[in-house]
Specification:
138 residues; two-stranded antiparallel sheet; mainly alpha
C-alpha cells in the first residue's frame, strides 16, 4: 500500500518562475519571457510505492488505462492535499478574525476609560476655575 509523506518548504527558500494566474507551461508555449525569480512557497508530496503501483496497474490494465488510473489516483491525492491546505488557511483566517474581535473590544474599553478620565479632568478643571473666580471676588 503506498504511503504519502508531505513536507513544507519555507517561503524564503524557494522560487517560482511565474504567477498562479499564468501557468508556466502556457507561458512557455506562448514564448513569453519569464522572470528570473519570484517569492513563493512549495509543497512536496512523496508517494512511496508509486513505481511498483504504476507497474502493477500497467500490467493489470494495460499501458494506457494504467497510466490514466495512475493519473486519476495522483489527482485525488493532490485534491486532498489542496483541501487540507485550504482548511488550514480557513483556520488561520478564523483565528485572525477572533483576535481582531478581541482587540476591538479592548480598544473600545480603553476609549471608554479615556472618556471617563477626560470628563473627570474637565470637571476638576471647571471646579478649580470656579473656586478661583469665587475667591477673587471675596
Amino acid at each position: 500500500m503506498p504511503t504519502i509523506s508531505i513536507s513544507r518548504v519555507p517561503a524564503g527558500l524557494c522560487t517560482r518562475t511565474t504567477s498562479p494566474s499564468r501557468p508556466l507551461n502556457k507561458a512557455l508555449a506562448r514564448g513569453e519571457t519569464l522572470p528570473d525569480r519570484a517569492t513563493g512557497a512549495a509543497l512536496f508530496a512523496d508517494i512511496s510505492g508509486f513505481t511498483p503501483l504504476t507497474g502493477a496497474l500497467a500490467q493489470e490494465l494495460g499501458l494506457e488505462r494504467g497510466a490514466k488510473k495512475v493519473k486519476s489516483l495522483r489527482d485525488r491525492v493532490l485534491l486532498v492535499v489542496e483541501m487540507v491546505a485550504v482548511l488550514g488557511l480557513f483556520a488561520i483566517i478564523v483565528g485572525s478574525l477572533l483576535n481582531l474581535q478581541t482587540l476591538n473590544q479592548e480598544v473600545a474599553q480603553a476609549r471608554a476609560s479615556l472618556n471617563v478620565a477626560r470628563a473627570s479632568l474637565a470637571e476638576a478643571a471647571s471646579t478649580a476655575a470656579s473656586k478661583k473666580l469665587f475667591i477673587g471676588y471675596s
